[in-house]
Amino acid sequence: MNNNPSVIDKTQALEKIAQQANDCTQCPLYKTATKAVPGAGNPEAEIVFIGEAPGYWEDQKGIPFVGAAGNLLNKLLIEIGMNRDDVYICNILKHRPPNNRDPQENEIQACTPYLKQQLLIIKPQLIITLGRFAMNYFLPSAFISKVHGVSRKISWQDFSLTLFPVYHPAAALRNGKMLEALRQDFAKIPDLLGNSKTPQKKPEKKPSQGSLF
Ligand code: SF4
Q1: Tens digits of per-residue pLDDT, 3-57?
Q2: How far is it, in rounded angstroms, from Cα 28 to Cα 25?
Q3: Which of 33, 66, 137, 163 lies at a CB distance of 3.0 to 4.6 Å from 95, suitable for a disulfide?
Q4: CATH code of the domain containing 30
Q5: Which residue has a Cα nearest atom 6 of ligand 1?
Q6: 24 CB near ligand 1 (under 6 Å)
Q7: Tally of domains within the chain
Q8: Residue 173: inside a domain
Q9: Looking at the domain assignment, is residue 123 inside a domain?
């Protein structure tokens, strides 16, 4: 069992946010969703992936990226020698929009304080945004077709990190060119970690956030 108090503290802090998201009524999405999907993975991760919003299977299971897009994400991680226990995965929105429609501005405004708290707890070296909505949280005027696969150092909430926008796996599943671009962008990820190329391993016996629901 890992007795590192910082891991325990981070896990407990993330569980608290997960519970808050589960109880949240700050936007109407809680009314139509099955359950919240706060996030899952390694609280000590060097890499955080941020997607758009839960889809059908995520809404059913309370775990991010468990449908077809999640299977592709898992496969892409394996291709670069990682797996999802090495990283943390979450979304801009914690509840599923009806029929997977795009997130609305009021929903993003209401929900992103949870994301902000998660990132301040984990303090990753590298944030990989999946799709335009997550990218626009950090780069409001950027276009994903122009900036995907290009990393940049940013200062965010008083700490510096690397931001790396890529296409959303769900979009890549519908478009062969996007899939190839996504695969090529993923191949750059190990080098983006700089000196720390070995991902942190998931602490033993620590439940993922998704297992709370
Ligand atoms: S989507 Fe976010 S802001 Fe809206 S109810 Fe769910 S947790 Fe709250």
Answers
A1: 565 889 999 999 999 999 999 999 999 999 999 999 999 999 999 999 999 999 9
A2: 7
A3: 33
A4: 3.40.470.10
A5: 95
A6: yes
A7: 1
A8: yes
A9: yes
